[in-house]
Amino acid sequence: MNPKTTDRKTTPLRFDLDRIRGDFPILSREVHGRRLAYLDNAASTQKPRAVVEALENFYFSEYSNVHRGVHYLSQRATEAFENARARVGRFVNAERAEEIVFTRGATEAINLVARSFAAPHLGPDDEILITTMEHHSNIVPWQLACEAAGARLRVAPISDDGDLEIDRLESMIGDKTRLVSVVHVSNSLGTVNPIAEIARRAHSRGVPVLVDGAQAAPHLPIDVQSLGCDFYAFSGHKVYGPTGIGVLWGRHELLEQMPPWQGGGDMIESVSFEKTTYREPPFRFEAGTPNISGAVGLSAALDYIDELNIESVRAHEAELIDDTLLRLEQTEGVHLIGRPARRCGVISFNMEGIHPHDIGSIVDLEGVAIRTGHHCTQPLMDRLGVTATARASFGIYNGRDDVDALLNALDKVRSIFGKGG
Predict the structure, then answer these.
(1) Residues 6 or more apart in contact with residue 388 via CB below 8 angstroms
(2) Do 242 and 327 belong to one domain?
(3) Are the C-beta atoms of 261 and 115 separated by less than 8 Å?
(4) What pLDDT was estimated at residue 420?
(5) pTM to 2 decimal places
(6) Engineering a disulfide at 235: which of 166, 246, 281, 375 sits with its beta carbon 3.0 to 4.6 angstroms away?
(7) pLDDT confidence of residue 267
């Protein structure tokens, strides 16, 4: 049985893998005496030299605090920080830079919306609607909000193949639904959800939509206006940028209605002991000194991706995933987990009679980095009837030699466990 198609173009553009690998110094190192085959990109991507150099230049030449100083370095740092905000705005096709809120990551961005947007609108018996394939960071914030308000968290089902049952999701949107929150790309299955269609159906019932885009941003062109959602969250470290920096995009008219969720410096207009007034978005959501260098590094990462051409990246990754799926299907004892109609970035699998953690430990000794476990999607694992999976996830610097290394390492796993090979 052939695997279902991935998200790919029929005519790939030129993709210079050797040049790209040369931009990532860590890929030249050995692990356990083997060439590193890094297939754990869904957890975090490696960083190109351009990002590291941008951080180094900022700290060595332009570092200061932002927004508060009139001196030269403060002005330069502020300019770099706000230029990064504008750069992110272009990356997601925001209408204005003020729709970009810097956070610590997608997790904090979702928590911000749960605390500042959802909580004030939730009452007893109201509902938040999510899906079975959500990451814990798109489950727990809504559970906390619902528990505090006496509201209810509802969960739209998925098929055995790992596709969202969108008609069922639509049928669950009712008069009590206050928000639909859905992942763009599943971190466990690679399922690409039809966000524009979900947003259209939710909006027809007057319900706003948040999208967890942490796994989509490294692989797909993100156009929030075309997607039609109301909030979009992603993390810098998954898109070849630094850790500790993330993004919440929100429609400006919604951000204007939302109260601050943290108090401190730089998010205020004026403070007295009797009353505090707050700045306009996005600043009211960025209390305290922000991750200035993280924003600068994220901006450099987005520049790097754009220089490669996201369509070329998509074509390369899709071809690689198709090849890997076919080869895994032909490997004795390997069972693919999920066969979504549209996939990008991720392949999960198990091996008959072998625990995923044992798979991960053995392939690591062969220089192959994969992820094993429940991938912060325990409810999804329960739905699929497994406790854990092995997951190979792909980035711009992966090639067929990485797939070769993975398959050879899996042969070693089978041999050690007496499964043939």
Answers:
(1) 355, 356, 357, 372, 373, 374, 381
(2) no
(3) yes
(4) 61
(5) 0.95
(6) 246
(7) 85
**Domain assignment of residue 2, yes or no:** no
**Alpha-carbon gap, residue 384 to 375, rounded angstroms:** 13
Backbone CA torsion sign across 99, 102, 107, 112: negative
What's the pLDDT at 199? Answer: 98
Packing angle, helices 310-329 and 400-416, rounded to 10: 30
Q: Which residues of the chain have pLDDT under 50?
A: 1-13, 421
- Which pLDDT score is estimated for 250? 98
| Whether residue 26 is found in the same domain as residue 93 | no
- pLDDT number for residue 1: 40
Which of 276, 306, 336 is the C-terminal boundary of a domain? Answer: 306
| Same-domain pairing of 206 and 104 | yes
- Residue 15 has a pLDDT of 79
Residue 134: its H or E element: none
| Residue ending a domain, choose from 306, 324, 351 | 306
Quote the pLDDT of residue 12.
Answer: 43
Mapping DSSP to helix (H, G, I), strand (E, B) and coil, where does residue 250 land?
Answer: strand
Strand 231-235, strand 209-212: pairing? parallel
Task: Tell whether 59 and 95 lie within a shared domain.
Answer: yes
335: domain CATH number? 3.90.1150.10
pLDDT at 11: 39
Q: Could you list the residue range(s) of the whole structural domain that residue 255 is in?
A: 52-306
Rounded to 10 degrees, the C-alpha dihedral 47/14/218/241 comes to: 20
Distance of alpha carbon 400 from alpha carbon 21, whole angstroms: 13
Q: Kindly list the catalytic residues.
A: 376
